[in-house]
């Protein structure tokens, strides 16, 4: 079985394999995604709890969007020393988030937003991967027929275009997932669902600007998401294809299934890690934009302005 020959995989088999891989990866990495979102939201000043404990002043209710100070000021204002939350109330890192979620909210809360993640996987499988394969093959064919030097850039171009389409389609679900992982409903203290989040966004921003405005807000942060995902895909595929080809060549002229899986795993881990590290600041911007609930601020926020706030 280990030496079974490889055969051509058709589109249907690719789609089924991609769907299975998307499901498994979403389940496995969701706890890390929850930790990442809460750490980013904490620095934006958005508390997951409906109230914040402040040293020396007990509990106080936060504003309607659940906003708390992201960091303690280092100097006093008007002669009044700052009142800051004890360090134990702030997340200190990824594993601290996961530990506290399990202890304070329950083990299953690590999979908060999983339903939205799985829903996002559908357009990812149905649009992103098939579009990438089709565009890459067409670019390679066009390059060969016209004696152009586009073949090395085919993964970069195909990945960027395919990811752009997928991001625009599933942006409302990404917005819902981010808010589900970062916030509770400040009025009820309960965890919102996907439809509840999207309905609240539509109702909140559609009051003054009409239904069209409410629908438009569902794509909040799509610019930041494109700025993150398009470079991510470009870097990932540009590194992945050569790395995978190199690994397959090293495996021999007739590699077996185990070696192919190993080559794909190593190449994917290396390319994905490199792309994630390069685009992490843009991921922070996306989270900050999507967890903002002040209608006025949402309408005035831009990629540059959000970056300026983070930099300060």
From TrEMBL:
One Gene Ontology cellular component annotation held by this UniProt entry: mitochondrial inner membrane
Subcellular localization, as worded in the UniProt entry: Mitochondrion inner membrane
Solcar repeat locations: 9-138, 150-246
Superkingdom of this protein's organism: Eukaryota
Record's keyword terms, sorted: Membrane, Mitochondrion, Mitochondrion inner membrane, Repeat, Transmembrane, Transmembrane helix, Transport
Keyword Ribonucleoprotein: no
The keyword Acetylation is annotated on this UniProt entry: no
Protein topology in the membrane: Multi-pass membrane protein
A single BP term in Gene Ontology: mitochondrial transmembrane transport
Family affiliation: Belongs to the mitochondrial carrier (TC 2.A.29) family.
PANTHER family reported in the protein's UniProt record: FI19922P1-RELATED
Protein name: Mitochondrial carrier protein MTM1
Taxonomic placement: Eukaryota, Viridiplantae, Streptophyta, Embryophyta, Bryophyta
